[in-house]
Write a structure and sequence with these properties.
The structure holds 2 protein chains of 2 kinds. Chain A is mainly alpha-helical. Helices cover 85% and strands 0% of the residues of chain A. In chain A, helix 2 packs antiparallel against helix 3 (71-99), helix 3 runs antiparallel to helix 4 (109-150) and helix 4 packs antiparallel against helix 6 (159-200). Chain B has 2 domains: 1-75, Orthogonal Bundle (Rna Polymerase Sigma Factor, Chain: A), CATH 1.10.1740; 78-166, Arc Repressor Mutant, subunit A. Chain B is built from 9 helices and no strands. The chains are: A mainly alpha, B mainly alpha. At the A-B interface, helix 1, helix 2, helix 4 and helix 6 of A face helix 1, helix 2, helix 3, helix 4 and helix 5 of B.
Amino acid sequence: METLDEAKNLWQNTNQTVEPAINKAEVENIIRARIKKEKKSAAEYFGLSFAYQILIYAFASHLIIKYWGDGRVMLLGVAGVVLYIPLTIILMRKFNAMFNLPAQQIADVQSNVKNQYALLGQFFNFKKRFELLSLPLTSVILTGIIFMLYVPGGVGANVGGAVITCLAMLLIYSVAAWFENKKHFVHPLNRLRYILDDIARVS
Amino acid sequence: MQHVTEDKFVEAINSNIGIIHKICNVYFTDADDRKDICQEILYQLWRSYPAFKGDAKFSTWMYKVALNTAITYSKKAGREVPTDMQAGNWEQLAANNDPQHNYERMALLYAAINTLSVTDKAITLLYLEDNSYEEIAEITGITKTNVSVRLVRIKKALKEKLKNII
């Protein structure tokens, strides 16, 4: 028995029901709703990142202005700003690209999945490298600022406390980054890898 | 998108609307998921339409967009055949030409296809829709030889699954 050929006959004879046509108003409503949904989900991810970075810039600017002339505080404030500028630029580019995607020639399924995997992987690699540098530095800078401004004697008189604070901050940042990466990058990349492996599988 | 293009777009989609529904039915069992993915496919078609130059068949282009969307959004494949689909026997139903039995056989067929991997589902659907090996290769990005090899394996797997659905 050639089951697939039988199935093909059945498919051709039974599964050709005429689906109801879709009118222009329905298409417009679907597209409008879909654009709104896409903007909302993009805004959720990028909005939080932007809000966090604006807070960093605002805090750093506040410190630089308030402690103008105090070299150490100014240096830490400037370090914080310089550290986050590259990520802000990349995020803005990514944000812009997401909302202004030009219509592209549609590739076959394999090429399309490969492209998606490469794009997401590139951004994730940049993010991982950036986090490797930024998380410890952010922890050190914030610990330095907190102890310098609010703890009598500063870091010099409280080395143990400063180290514990710095490590605690690093741990919190790392855990948050791990969860974020798992949700937005690791799972989607694994899923795309699975599809690519499945496409490439011959026997 | 201009209104002239919109009218042309809607007209072209309506001529091939079955493609969207069949892909949704093959990749998604839940009615809400199907509705969502149908809308997502429509949106992706609308977004890609300005780049459609007409150098390929509209249906081929539509298969590419719709399958790309469905595959990206589908969960991992290889689900078990739902229990409510196990009520019939492919062979017994095949012996009966009653249209009602044909609908039952279609349900069994969908259930069996649902257990295949994401790529095998695409190949099976394109085969059932009477696309040539060249067209299947063009849409999926797999070589023609691989399409042929995979179809042999799919035939075997489906035969086994449909026999076991008793």
